[in-house]
Protein: Com family DNA-binding transcriptional regulator
Amino acid sequence: MEIVRCGQCGRKLAEAEYSRLAIKCPRCGTMNELKACEPLTSAPRAPDQEVYDGKTNCPLGGRQTSPS
Structure:
């Protein structure tokens, strides 16, 4: 988390993770508008199926597909 301080008087206003934030300082009345320089990143997603040597890493567990 990032500490958010007033740009005018330096009072601590919040601790936050944000992409956009507008907050008014109760001490001096300055409206502080902040934007993140970089978008928030999320944890990388796991692939649906992993492929090794042309085979998927999803065993059928003894199940067979039904004949069409």
In short: The chain has no helices and six strands. Strands lie at 2-5, 12-16, 20-24, 31-35, 51-52, 55-56. Residues 1-37 form one domain. Residues 24 and 31 are 4 Å apart (CA to CA).
